[in-house]
Write a structure and sequence with these properties.
Number of strands: 12
Radius of gyration: 21 Å
Largest sheet: 7 strands, mixed
Distance between the termini: 16 Å
Pfam family, one: NamZ_C
Order of helices and strands: HEHEEEHEHEEHEHEHEHEEHHHH
Number of helices: 12
Shape: globular
CATH class of the largest domain: Alpha Beta
Number of domains: 2
GO molecular function: peptidoglycan beta-N-acetylmuramidase activity
Structural class: alpha/beta
InterPro entries: NamZ (IPR008302), NamZ_C (IPR048503), NamZ_N (IPR048502)
Protein name: DUF1343 domain-containing protein
Length: about 375
């Protein structure tokens, strides 16, 4: 069975165990036996004195993009500093009474999932204030197979934001530990980083292979299927199509009150996916309280599934099928209050909406090139920790 970095750490007695530890974490960070990491570490005598939380808060239940406040952890009674509230970066006063920072948050392998970018701000703060950073690493649930990485690679000169700061592919096929080493080096941050590696993880495996249940990482990330589809279906945030928020199946169902779902299914035939018609009524987000006609997607062959290509083609098919109803929409969040240019920020290049004006044949050819994660295998290889 997979051993997460925190499982490995719990078997060790590091010299810094009794130092004042600031732990960056959330409730989705558990041991392989599903005990919250922060609780397990405290029970083993790790001197955690301060908690820091990412988007969605320490309980991992805050609404998408909603500002999170500081507070007290109900489980440990430790103070919690939010890194998705009035600030995104830990300040001098936040780290003044801390000797070392430990990071343990699960990721889902997509560039626009914000936990990676919270980690980059932690790396910068640790470098600035001369604090060692320990990262309890975790496997990538949608595999670390670099041949399955998908672009576009982000253009950081025009599209840098909190859902993608630096040039990485949309589906990166790495662990956060690997990305931390890579970005620390290529960005010249020079933080003192140590990775506590996972054990028994092979890069080509997916979360269902681990022998550990999927722990929801945020309100809309409830299953492995959601994580696998998310690099593509996450793009629906920039449209007036529901991505399933406000239901029990976010990012596995999509729809709208005006969608002809049976016609769409005919256009989307895909041997790797099972696609079924569905109706649903969201309790929040788009079309709250309205009956939506949609589709439910289930990936049957994970190993060869191209999530980004699938999401782009889905949007194109719906746009062409319903030109009178489909529209692009802003997506306001704590870090982008106006919600403007959301598709550009998700995809990582400017004027991305114009891509969808191409005829379908040209569009298919264009996205085939766009989703190549150019030079990524070569660039990331020196920083890989697992085979």
């Amino acid at each position: 069975m997979i051993q997460f970095g925190v499982d490995v750490l719990l078997t060790q007695n590091p010299v810094w165990k009794n130092k004042r530890i600031g732990l960056v974490t959330n409730h989705a960070a558990t041991t392989s036996s599903l005990q919250p990491s922060r609780q397990a570490l405290l029970q083993k005598g790790f001197n955690i004195t301060q908690l820091f939380s990412p988007e969605h808060g320490l309980d991992a239940k805050g609404a998408d993009g909603a500002k999170m406040a500081d507070g007290i952890d109900w489980l440990t009674q430790l103070p919690v500093t939010s890194l998705y509230g009035d600030k995104l970066v830990a300040q001098a006063e936040d780290l003044a009474d801390i000797d070392i920072v430990l990071f343990d948050i699960p990721d889902i392998g997509s560039r626009f999932y914000t936990y990676l970018w919270t980690l980059t701000y932690v790396i910068e703060a640790c470098a600035k204030f001369n604090k060692p950073l320990m990262i309890a690493d975790r496997p990538n649930p949608v595999s670390g197979n670099l041949s399955r990485a998908e672009g576009p690679v982000l253009d950081e000169n025009t599209c840098s934001s909190f859902i993608g700061r630096w040039a990485t592919p949309l589906r990166h096929s790495c662990t956060l530990g690997e990305l931390a080493l890579y970005l620390n080096e290529v960005k010249g941050i020079h933080a003192n980083i140590e990775i506590i590696k996972c054990q028994h993880w092979q890069r080509d495996t997916f979360q269902p292979d681990w022998g550990v249940p999927f722990v929801p990482t945020s309100p809309a990330m409830q299953s492995f299927q959601s994580a696998l589809l998310y690099p593509g279906l996450g793009l629906l945030e920039a449209t007036n199509i529901s991505e399933g928020r406000g239901t029990e199946m976010p990012f596995t169902i999509i729809g709208a009150p005006w969608l002809d779902n049976n016609l769409l299914i005919e256009k989307l035939l895909n041997a790797m996916m099972e696609i079924k018609p569905i109706t649903f009524v969201p309790t929040e987000s788009k079309y709250t309280g309205e009956l939506c006609y949609g589709i439910k997607l289930s990936v049957k062959i994970s190993t060869d599934f191209e999530a980004v290509n699938n999401g782009l083609m889905l949007i194109k098919r719906i746009k062409d099928q319903h030109p009178e109803h489909f529209s692009w929409k802003p997506y306001p969040t704590n870090v982008n209050p106006n919600g403007t240019n959301h598709l550009d920020l998700l995809l990582g290049f400017p004027q991305s909406e114009s891509l969808f004006e191409l005829p379908i044949k040209d569009f298919a050819e264009q996205i085939k090139n766009l989703t190549l994660a150019k030079n990524w295998q070569e660039n990331i290889r020196p920083y890989l920790l697992y085979s």
